[in-house]
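lol ok so funny story. i was supposed to be doing the assay writeup but got distracted and ended up predicting the structure for this chain instead. priorities right. anyway since i did it might as well share w the group, maybe its usefull for someone
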Amino acid sequence: MSPLRLQAETAYGRVEGTESKGILAFKGIPYAEAPQGRFRFQPPRPLKGWTGVRPAHRCGPVPIQPALPIFRFLNAGAARQSEDCLYLNVWTPGTEGTKRPVLVWIHGGGFLIGAGSTPVYDGHHLAQSGDIVVVTINYRLGALGFVHLDGLAKSGFEESSNLGSRDQIAALEWVRENIGEFGGDPENVTVCGQSGGAMSVGALLGAPSARGLFQRAILQSGAGRHVIDRDRADEAAELFLDELGNPRCTPKSLGALSANQILSAQGAVNRKLMNARDLMVMMPCVDGNLITEAPLEAIGKGRVSDIDIMIGTTLDEWKLFSPLDAALLRSSESRLVSRFAELLPQIVSNPPDPEFAVQAYREALAKRGGKTTPFEILSAFQSMRVFHHPAFELADQHGNAGGRVHSYLFSWKPPAFARSLGACHAMELPFVFGLTNHPLSRAFTGFTGSARRLAGRMQSAWTSFARNGRPGHPGLPEWDPYDSVARPTMVFDRECTLADNPLAAERNLLEAWS
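and the output, tada:
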């Protein structure tokens, strides 16, 4: 076998990667010019290119973001932060020969934290196990990516909306233009993300300029409902400028502010505007320019029915956030009723009596064999309304519009010492990317035989879907496409099964109250 070629020619210059165990890695490749100074709050700009060979041996800086210790295991560690952050990373089994499917990963973090270089997203195992090309990307976060200044009628900010989404599209355009030189097929691209990354994928489904850049989409713990309308976007933008002290609103003056000033104002806006209904306010918006209609409307009208979709959630999503929710941690029966009394009027249009709601949810949870302590009930309710229901909703809309959908539910629970987390938000990540020495893998999977078997099955499902839009493979039961009647869903656990309409009783309650 001839040695792997360590260099690749992009449209902007040659890059040199590294090789490990038969996989080439090209890290820290820029896909747009740095959005700094007067280019802050502006759309990504095309690269100017370089001469000679650019080393692509290490990841680029991570986007500017606040320090959130609870999510440190998903963050990029001690990596340097910078507004010069528009970089991507490529893992490939080879740059020559038959073109391979491409999977482009959009990281999560609630549009506030994270990076494509986070160790748990290392693409080596996925590229190797599935013989595919894996790309991970950075994009602008928080106020720098999702404060939408275009609606304030300020000169110089006419396209200053959805900047993080525009970055994602610029990265996908780079993939279309260059991935063939890395052994990838630009006509066979799957965009994939988890949490805020999956919500980003959902937003891209409502963006006409993103169509044609990918043929398939995988949404992990995120769906198409996570966009704000123009009024909410303008409210957040106005408050953001207020918190900055109402500086002169020009590209030059806003570009002269420090990153700490941006983060301080960003935090103040989030504290003032976030509530039980709006868990995030710095997120994509329907701006009428990039995102022309709510993604669910676009999906329901069949505008993206040619895109194959795989979508799913983890069973106990909300348990990851229990440290942020004192009521969840200290739940007693009386606290549970009080919490339902607080939540229901904010999130449903036909709120039932709180005591009735608690009892109804307890009975629904018992039907699937779940524990019915106050902690479990509140966690299950939050998981359903924030994650499960939006995923089912998107699947229904896409399937009814003629699109092909596959649905999954990840219910594997960690070893005993971490059992209270259950199958919480982000628990599936090491199974998708491969069990490694990353702390998330070590802490929550235990490297057990059953965990390794499940990781292999899930990686095969993800890479099979990237190859041909069908995630089924010999290691799983027959995986029927989703339909809005039977709602067949692959349950990933120590033993994988295909279940019809899982969580139906809980879903029905939420829909009856809505």
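Residues 7-304 form a domain with the Rossmann fold fold (CATH 3.40.50.1820). The first helix runs from residue 124 to 130.
back to the writeup now i swear
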